[in-house]
Design a protein that fits this description.
This protein has 378 residues and is of the alpha+beta class. It is built from 14 helices and nine strands. It has a six-stranded antiparallel β-sheet with strand order 2-1-9-8-7-6, sandwiched between helices. A three-stranded antiparallel β-sheet has the order 3-5-4. α2 packs antiparallel against α14 and α3 packs across α8. The longest helix is centred in the N-terminal third of the chain and has 16 residues. It is globular, with a radius of gyration of 20 Å. The relative contact order is 0.17.
């Protein structure tokens, strides 16, 4: 998408007054220091409104956020990697009921032989979110293979398929399955099969090393917005703003991208754009409540906290991140760096909201801006 492809809020069917209020709210949060930087893009049907950006490119306030700013979107990476897995399902390379050990035999250690690919995608595997040695691995600048090895060694927090617990390490294993099935690293696969076909040319699952080693690369690196890191990362060379994390390409949280590129992906999920990399059958499976047919998952999770395949569905009793006004069929994902994207098939709309302040577990400011944008949608 270029400037010529964007339309006015009115032409897209958004209430211009309410959309302006949403932008002003994000700008106010930026001006008072609540959110160092913010970006918002939304669309309805075939129409997309130009992105709104505000705040600071760097935490010291020396530069305003760039029009071409790139954001580390953290766990919004997960549905991208989930899409890679679904592409392999479509091609007959894997099925959701395949056991992980069919592709990564060493994963079966410590009672994990019953974990299936669908469990990784729905957070029902019993794996921990992060490894016990997570910080130590990052301090050592460990490669992705060390996280995969650690996940193969770790035990389960609960019996597979009998609970729901958000887990990043399941997506580490999905990335490894993509690698072993295709012969490409997960980062290479998503670049070749997702980013390039969709025109997401400013998206990287791990920045290239040359960006840190050449003058041309340094100029590109200036596009990446600095994040206000949590206390445990302050002063650490492995924090979100450091070369290690920016180049690691973690399948659970290492995507760097732009609001416009994420809009391209959201539009594909809604059936718009020039390239449809997923079939409608796969999209329907990815965005319906997969927990409903898991009889051993607690009833309250099945009924009120649904998960698709890599996507979180609308949880009506939770304001966090998505806000309170999104439709009953909406789905999306959030990121620990202060990001969220969601789509609502009921009114054929999407919203991408990127900030640079961690907001977990409540997503307070994301939810407030999400509500303001929802109010502007038809």
């Amino acid at each position: 998408m270029t400037d010529a492809d964007f339309v006015s809020p009115q032409a897209a069917g958004l209430d211009p007054v309410r959309r302006k209020f949403a932008c002003e709210l994000l700008e106010r949060f930026s001006a008072d220091g609540t959110l160092p930087a913010g970006a918002l893009i939304a669309g309805v049907g075939d129409s997309v409104v130009a992105p709104f950006l505000c705040g600071r490119q760097t935490l010291d306030g020396s530069a305003s956020v760039r029009d071409d700013a790139m954001f580390l979107v953290a766990s919004i990476t997960k549905p991208i990697v989930g899409t890679a897995a679904l592409m392999l399902v479509e091609r007959g390379e894997i099925t959701l009921s395949d056991k992980v050990i069919e592709y990564v035999p060493e994963f079966g250690r410590n009672g994990k032989s019953g974990v299936r690919i669908r469990h990784l995608l729905t957070h029902t595997s019993g794996l921990p979110d992060m490894l016990p040695q997570n910080v130590e691995l990052r301090k050592e600048h460990a490669p992705l293979s060390a996280f995969v090895e650690g996940t193969c060694d770790v035990g389960l927090d609960f019996a597979t398929g009998r609970g729901v617990k958000y887990q990043s390490m399941g997506f580490a294993m999905l990335g490894e399955i993509v690698h072993r099935v295709t012969g490409l690293t997960c980062a290479e696969f998503v670049r070749k099969e997702i980013f390039e076909p969709l025109g997401m040319l400013d998206s990287h699952l791990g920045l290239p090393d040359e960006w840190f080693e050449s003058a041309d690369g340094a100029a590109k690196l200036e596009r990446v917005v600095e994040i206000q890191v949590p206390d445990e990362q302050v002063g650490q060379d492995w924090n979100w703003n450091g070369r290690y994390w920016r180049t690691l390409g973690a399948p659970w949280g290492g995507l760097l991208t732009t609001p416009v590129d994420l809009a391209r992906f959201c539009r594909m999920m809604l059936g718009h754009g020039d390239m449809q990399i997923l079939s409608q059958a796969a999209i329907r499976a990815a965005t319906r409540n997969q927990l409903e047919v898991m009889p051993d998952v607690p009833e309250i999770d099945r009924r009120t906290r649904g998960w698709g395949l890599g996507w979180r569905l609308n949880w009506p009793a939770h304001s966090a991140n998505f806000g309170d006004l999104s439709g009953s069929r909406s789905y999306g994902h959030w990121g620990a760096t202060g990001t969220v994207c969601w789509m609502d098939p009921e009114n054929d709309s999407f919203v991408v909201l990127l900030t640079t302040r961690p907001q977990e577990p409540h997503g307070t400011w994301l939810a407030r801006v999400s509500n303001a944008v929802s109010a502007a949608l038809p």
